Amino acid sequence: MESHDELRQRNRARRAALDDDALEHAASALAQRVLDLPEYQQAGSIAAYFAVNGEIGLDPVIDHALSQGKQVFLPNLDQKSLRLAPVS
Question: Which of 67, 75, 72 is nearest to 49 (CA)?
């Protein structure tokens, strides 16, 4: 069985192999799935992330949430802990 670190390395390599078109398509498909969720539609606030290292971006979800007046929180890592910080 793969260790957690091995799984992360394998997934990073798979993401790195994707081209920009594939990432954009994946981001659009993910955004549509999130926007269609009743939980998202009813939420007054959401937590999200900015994509790094070839991750699928949530920018369309963040933009939509802000346009709908939802509060958006993003991870903020300082030296001691991970906190969620509001986006304005």
Answer: 75
Strand partners, 72: 46
3 state SS of 29: helix
pTM of this prediction? 0.80
What strands, in cross-sheet order, belong to the sheet with 82-86? 45-47, 71-77, 82-86
Helix (H) or strand (E) holding 32: helix 20-36
Give the amino acid at 78: D
Q: Is 32 exposed, middle or buried (0-12, 13-18, 19+ CB in 10 A)?
A: exposed
For 28-65, write each residue's pLDDT tens digit.
Answer: 999 999 999 999 999 999 999 988 878 888 999 999 99
pLDDT tens column, 25-34: 988 999 999 9
Calculate the CA 88 to chain-centre distance. 17
